[in-house]
Amino acid sequence: MSTHKLHGRRRAAAPAAVAAPVPQARPRDAVRAERRGRGPVRQAAGLAGVTGAGQKAGMALAATGLVLAVAIPTTGAAVAEEPAKPAKAPLALVSTPLSAKVEFSRTGFSTTADPDGRLKQIMSTASGSVTPASAKGSLAAPLAHMTETSPFGQRISPITGELGEFHRGEDFAAGCGTDVHAAASGKVTFAGWHPYGGGNRVVIDHGNGLETTYNHLSSFSVHVGQEVSRGELIALSGTTGASTGCHLHFEVMVNGDVVDPAGWL
Questions:
Q1: Contact predicate 26/33, CB 8 Å
Q2: What are 97-114's pLDDT values in tens digits?
Q3: Which residue among 36, 123, 203, 265 is the one 20 to 30 A from 171 at the CA level?
Q4: pLDDT tens-digit profile of 188-213?
Q5: Which residues does 139 contact at the CB level (< 8 Å), separation at least 6?
Q6: Would you say 122 and 114 are in contact if contact means Cβ atoms under 8 Å apart?
Q7: Residue 155's beta-bridge partner residues?
Q8: DSSP annotation string for the chain
Q9: What is this structure's pTM?
Q10: Which whole-number Å values give the CA distances from 82 to 76, 85, 87, 136, in the listed order?
Q11: Could you give the domains of the chain?
Q12: How far apart are alpha carbons 214 and 249 in whole angstroms?
């Protein structure tokens, strides 16, 4: 018999068993469980929505033979459609009564394609004074090749050798029989022998006080009153009159006074 019994004591009862704690479900365990219940397509779609890796998921599913039906947002900027342009209204036709009189003034405009129009404009607006800047290039060259041999103005006379002779025009080298052309359109007012040294001479009136003369000609092919056009063949160069050799003596006159041809050619 044990000592505990002798003293009337009872043996302590065994401690009661403690119940094991029930594990609490974690949030991500529920997500994992939900994913286990999904098919591969739904998992990929969810991954695309959460991580933005839709393109990678689509490529992975395409490689396994599955079809991905998920809308993947693009990152490019949206392009606004250009609004349709309204159709142009048809041009309205302008009609003029048959009795209306329509006129155009040639002096009101000039173009490089109408050099005579430019010349007429210069002369009509000059009021008796034409500046070289405005007249330059308004006359055409009377020869195909222009080589000056004696300028306009004071010079030594090639015939007498005296100083102070006033040269009324400009001399250009030209072998006898070289074609001579009208410097501008106009009317022939003289064609014949010039008694003051010009020899065979042609004068053309271009209007508004402008005239050109062609001197020392071997022959000419125009007559007084004839209308000629700019660049038309009018004569052949020579050495008639007060001349020391074949050449062309060319003059420009404005209102009867000679001016330097270099300012017009």
A1: no
A2: 665 554 444 333 444 578
A3: 123
A4: 999 999 999 999 999 999 999 999 99
A5: 119, 183, 184, 212, 252, 261, 264, 265
A6: no
A7: 165
A8: --HHHHTTPPPPPPPPPPPPPPPPPPHHHHHHHHHHTS-HHHHHHHHHHHHS-HHHHHHHHHHHTPPP-------SPPPPPPPPPPPPPPPPP----TT------GGG---TT-HHHHHHHHHHHSTT---HHHHTT-S--SSSS--EEE-SEEE--TTT--TTEEE-SEEEE--TT-EEE-SSSEEEEEEEEETTTTEEEEEEEEETTEEEEEEEEEEE---TT-EE-TT-EEEEEB--SS-SSSEEEEEEEETTEEE-GGGT-
A9: 0.58
A10: 18, 9, 15, 54
A11: 41-71 (no CATH), 134-263 (2.70.70.10)
A12: 6
Per the structure block, which two tokens stand in for 48? Answer: 């695309």
Exposed, middle or buried, 186 (CB in 10 Å: 0-12/13-18/19+)?
buried
User: How long, in residues, is the chain?
Assistant: 265
* Amino acid type, 227: E
